């Protein structure tokens, strides 16, 4: 039995090595990676930086007159909305997909004060450029925090709000100790394809890997193989600091637009969990509780819990996610 276990372990290690060897190095702005739809750029000046913010504008063949904007999470970019965007477009929605500054194909400034208000303002500038007055807003993970701040700042621009496993449902400062940006940067520099995959397996997919998950690992893992990675890691450190220091959970009560919460209840994502006292770590990221708490905070909001689903419903259980989303926005 031990012999066969050793053989199995060797095979798994070999397959893992083959998997990681296929990951291609990616530069800071993903110039050698093709997105699923045509990419446009908003060029603007902010905080003494000349920046460009990437976005995709997916126009339907037969418009229903509605627009929906999709906001990505911290370990992602707009590309992972491909399947969702195609389905929305088929139903007549115009779909705007952004890459926030510091992410995806957008600029990676080295001197930039990241704030959710600034990201919301940058996002609004894209809508202004496209002459879009009102939109449905869907935010996943960190995108949920951006979507929340956008809705609070510009409620007149938001028709409906959808939060898919957003982070920021709790104040991480009340659990975890502070990590300086320099410390966060050094931590980011240690990331590898293997460490990213282990993280995703734990928090996203319950230790069950499927081929359809690979593209979203390749995108961030490819950065670690390129000489540009320090630029990406620095921006990741700056945005981690933003998430830790700028909670939105205290302001959910101020949201007045129709809101849907899509919550995978297996999710345990929490910023700084490794820095929290061991007795507090199990209390962090309890989405089966946080979803209910947030639904009570946002007056009139709707909560749909997806049992035994992790941090990425629109990838892990797309059909369930789509049915819930479309029922709310149709």
From TrEMBL:
<dbReference type="InterPro" id="IPR029058">
    <property type="entry name" value="AB_hydrolase_fold"/>
</dbReference>
<feature type="domain" description="AB hydrolase-1">
    <location>
        <begin position="67"/>
        <end position="216"/>
    </location>
</feature>
<protein>
    <submittedName>
        <fullName>Alpha/beta hydrolase</fullName>
    </submittedName>
</protein>
<dbReference type="Pfam" id="PF00561">
    <property type="entry name" value="Abhydrolase_1"/>
</dbReference>
<feature type="signal peptide">
    <location>
        <begin position="1"/>
        <end position="21"/>
    </location>
</feature>
<dbReference type="GO" id="GO:0016787">
    <property type="term" value="F:hydrolase activity"/>
</dbReference>
<dbReference type="InterPro" id="IPR050266">
    <property type="entry name" value="AB_hydrolase_sf"/>
</dbReference>
<dbReference type="InterPro" id="IPR000639">
    <property type="entry name" value="Epox_hydrolase-like"/>
</dbReference>
<keyword id="KW-0378">Hydrolase</keyword>
<dbReference type="InterPro" id="IPR000073">
    <property type="entry name" value="AB_hydrolase_1"/>
</dbReference>
<keyword id="KW-0732">Signal</keyword>
């Amino acid at each position: 039995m031990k012999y066969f276990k050793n053989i199995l372990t060797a095979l798994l290690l070999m397959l893992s090595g083959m998997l990681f060897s296929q990951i291609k190095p990616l530069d800071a702005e993903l110039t050698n990676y093709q997105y699923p739809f045509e990419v446009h750029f908003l060029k603007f000046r902010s905080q003494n930086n000349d920046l460009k913010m990437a976005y995709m504008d997916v126009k339907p063949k037969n418009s229903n007159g509605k627009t929906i904007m999709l906001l990505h999470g911290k370990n992602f970019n707009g590309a992972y909305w491909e399947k969702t965007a195609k389905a929305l477009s088929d139903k007549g929605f115009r779909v705007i997909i952004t890459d926030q500054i510091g992410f995806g194909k957008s600029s990676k400034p080295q001197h930039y004060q990241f704030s959710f208000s600034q990201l919301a303002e940058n996002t609004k500038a894209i809508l202004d450029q496209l002459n879009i007055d009102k939109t449905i807003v869907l935010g996943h993970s960190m995108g949920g925090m951006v979507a929340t701040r956008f809705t609070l700042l510009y409620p007149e621009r938001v028709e409906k709000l959808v939060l898919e496993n957003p982070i920021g449902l709790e104040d991480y400062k009340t659990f975890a100790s502070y990590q300086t940006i320099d410390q966060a940067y050094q931590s980011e520099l240690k990331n590898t394809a293997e460490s990213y995959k282990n993280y995703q397996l734990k928090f996203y997919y319950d230790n069950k890997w499927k081929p359809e998950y690979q593209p979203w690992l390749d995108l961030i893992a490819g950065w670690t193989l390129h000489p540009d990675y320090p630029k990406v890691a620095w921006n990741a450190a700056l945005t981690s600091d933003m998430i830790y220091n700028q909670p939105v959970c205290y302001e959910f009560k101020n949201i007045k637009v129709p809101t849907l919460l899509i919550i995978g209840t297996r999710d345990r994502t929490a910023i700084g969990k490794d820095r929290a006292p061991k007795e507090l770590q199990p209390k962090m990221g309890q989405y089966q509780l946080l979803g209910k708490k947030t639904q009570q905070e946002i007056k009139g909001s709707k909560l749909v819990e997806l049992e035994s689903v992790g941090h990425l419903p629109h990838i892990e259980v797309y059909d369930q996610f789509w049915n819930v989303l479309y029922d709310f926005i149709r």
